[in-house]
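Q: Can someone sanity-check these two? First one:
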Amino acid sequence: MRAFTAMAAVSSVQCLSSCSSHHHHQQRKQSESRWRLSSRVLVSSSLWKISLLSGVDLKRRRHLICTAVKGGAAEGAFKKTVELDRMIDALKDANPRELEKLVVENILAFDEVFWIRLAARSDTCISDDDKKDYEELAATVMTIVDCVVNKTREKIESSTDVLKGILRPVVEGVEEISWPPRDPDGINQMEKEIIQREKEGQLDEGFLSEVSAQLRQAKEDKDKPGLAAMLQKVLQLYAATILSKRSYAKKGNEVVKAEQFLETLIKAPEEQWNKLFLEGLTLGKGEVTPDELSAVIKKRVERTLIRTEGGSYQQRILIEYLKGIESRANEIMKLLQG
């Protein structure tokens, strides 16, 4: 959800300025037609309900009202209506720039319920001028929403192209995806692609969202283990690249061995972790105690939470990578202690 909103926020103003006046005029006509149709349907629906209830005796109507008031659903619907009315009032009072910002920030709020409520508000207007204001508001909001959605679709397509470029070294010329790749150098080439594209700013939230979505789908399908492992590797290489940008292994002229060991694990392929644990921990042949390693992992998690946007794909991927190292360390320590 956040990824969608973030992409929308970045591109909305650019998108709106690029829409031609002719296209805007046509879209407004179509929007107004849809708006009038919605209003007519709602009016007919309202008249039908009034006609239906007119034949119900007064006692029955009171019973229906009491039942509705008591129900939690009625209370929830009332709260939702109040929220929608606040949103509509804010949109009406906003200047063009504020209107764009409001629509982008609340892009997911413009669902069927919103448009029904907006049509209902229009139906209650007495003057034609007020009705026209609602029609123009509806047309403008529809235009902004359509533009944001189209820009987001383009962004997703661009992210897919970036992912294809990263995977090309291990899938090019291969009929069936398998993991690990037949060419051992393929992973090294993938890593180089990720490092280069990260420097160019191509691995943004849109890209991470796309990889995460494809990985989730591959896991759900269960018949593409090679693809799932490949996409998981992309996220691991991304996390290692980002986390390796900062080093905490030195305090002045002193080397902090636990931090240095963690940074070695971060940069290393997952397949080498077991060997590194045996060589680096005091339970094996190393100098770092389990408590020291646990402490620096916890500290790195805290630093990552501070330096990344809360709830972002980047934050989630980096934290999962660090937690993966911690989980593997705990497994190895249990085996060594046992």
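And here is the second, same format, sequence then tokens:
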Amino acid sequence: MKTTFLAQALALAAPSQAYLRFGCATLSVQRLDPLVEPGAIPSAHLHQIIGGNGFNATMDPTTDVAERATCTTCTFSEDFSNYWTAVMYLARNGTYKRVPQYPNSLLGNIKGGMTVYYIQQDFSSNGNQKITAFKKGFRMTVGTPLAKDGSNPGLRYTCLQNVNTRFPETAEFPKQACPAGIMAIHHFPACWDGKNLDSPNHQDHMYNTNRGAFTPAGACPASHPVRMPQLAYETMWDTRPFNNKADWPADGSQPFVWSYEDSKGYGTHGDYVFGWKGDALQRAMDSTALLSNGITTQSVDKANQCSVPNTVTEDIDSWLTALPGQGSMPM
């Protein structure tokens, strides 16, 4: 049975909630990708990044992200991790316009960004498994820009009727105008091999038993026996200013693309670099009430103030004749 938003909201308010759900404001929007293209300035396509201000083009895995950062855009002030995805654009008559982000439900006036989840089992129970927190130096990705189908059930879209809409989910960009925008959902694998903090493709050290829609993940295989938190992102893309169907392509197709020119949406992908301070995340995963055990929070205003300077200087917000990284020039 699918979880309703009301059930989620009640769980958020209850002292026995069995997961972490929190907002992180936008840290930066620029062409850097320290996992797939470490050291490249600029990277191939544009990303929107949240989390700690230790983010940079290299993200040396031998250094502690939590020690390098001095602030975070996340509600939990002990979380200096970095989370990022591609950026959505409107494509119209050979030009492109960046789609803004807006806050998810119950997150206040947070500036753009994403909603992050760390789930033990589901929204109503933390189950009976030991959940091992990610380790210092851990990183992973989910999805690939080269995907040609929507076979990963954890990578989905919701056409928002309002900010609380959660179903149905689709593997492609919604084909109709969405009254409250488009939510992009990224569920990461939660089974670890217990040995490697990363792998050459940033995925093989993890095994995906995700079933999508925040349902409990399947059992971990012997090759990847260690259950880790079920990490997920929700990004609210404000497509409302572009809902006039008269401005859509003449063939009636939907007009949105990812920043690497993906108009289907199958190539949606997310990146993660662990950076919680000390044992804060493990304490959360060991807790019945996940907001207990001294996990500190900060105000939305303080989270909104954290940022990093742009390493790549280019126009990403005007009407562009090509996407950033594709020879873009402002009109």
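A (reply): Looked at the second one. The helical segments are 5-13, 65-68, 280-286, 300-305. The mean pLDDT is 89.
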